[in-house]
Amino acid sequence: MSFRLPARLVGAAAPVGCLLLAGCGASFGMPEPASDQADSVLGLWSPTVVAALLVGCVVWSLTAWSVIRYRSRNNTLPTQVAEHIPIEVAYTVVPVLIVIVLFAFGTLAQRNVTERAADPDEVVEVIGFQWSWRFSYEGRDVVVSGDGAGTRGPELVLPSDRTTRLKLVSDDVNHSFWVPRFLSKRDLIPGVRNELDVSPTDEGTFVGRCAEFCGLDHWRMSFRVRIVSPTEFEDWVATAAEADGGGGG
């Protein structure tokens, strides 16, 4: 005796599974954003994942339904149809519309992430070198530098609710400035001066990494980003400027 599941039940299993996956969290595995630019990235990521799940649910459901509904035990083919214009138009137009919408929202998110303020509140030159980082605060007489000896690296202190321009410079090979909570990264390339504006919204200390393999000791190129209130930032700048070495490492 064979056991057969109803085709409708099998067809409904896929969307139910998609709904369960969608309940895993609104960020869908992305870190919690800690800047205005990161909010834009997450605002693009979440709807894109939802759209992908919906499309997947439709495809999986139709596939499961057709396999069960039209399976045959006597090797006979179901009725063959040469064409079905409405369906063909639908499965051509709908994907094109989805791509257009995703392209439009992706362009807006990219513009928000790459846009640079006309007059940033702070400017920091971020220099990557084998195997650490140096942060030079323009107009502040503060330099924070690491020596690559440890695993935590130097600390980049930034004020919250202000826009800081990061000028990314490499002294030797390609590196990449990456803070997971900022939901973006930017490469440091010799001879190319990349710039990145960051507007932190959450205070705290976040981990940073070099996201570009740059040699045998690439693993040493860690750093920390500490986001503090504007008042605390001014206090830190005053203390760091007075310290020997301009802020230490």
Task: Give the SSE layout.
Layout: H1 7-22, H2 36-69, H3 85-114, E1 122-129, E2 132-137, E3 142-145, E4 155-159, E5 164-170, E6 175-179, E7 184-188, E8 194-198, E9 204-210, E10 222-228, H4 230-242
Parallel strand pairs: 1-5, 4-10
Antiparallel strand pairs: 1-2, 2-3, 5-8, 6-7, 6-9, 9-10
Helix pairs in contact: 1-2, 2-3
Helix content: 25-40%
C-alpha-based Rg, rounded: 26 Å
C-alpha geometry:
elongated
| Biggest sheet: strand arrangement | 3-2-1-5-8
CATH superfamily of the largest domain: Cupredoxins -  blue copper proteins
Mean pLDDT comes to 84
List keywords for this structure.
249 residues; alpha+beta; Immunoglobulin-like; five-stranded mixed beta sheet; 4 helices; 24% strand
Molecular structure report:
The chain has 249 residues and is α+β, with helices and mostly antiparallel strands. The chain has two domains: 7-72 and 82-114; 122-242, Immunoglobulin-like (Sandwich). Helices cover 37% and strands 24% of the residues. The strands form two sheets. It has a five-stranded mixed beta sheet. The model has no long low-confidence stretch (mean pLDDT 84).
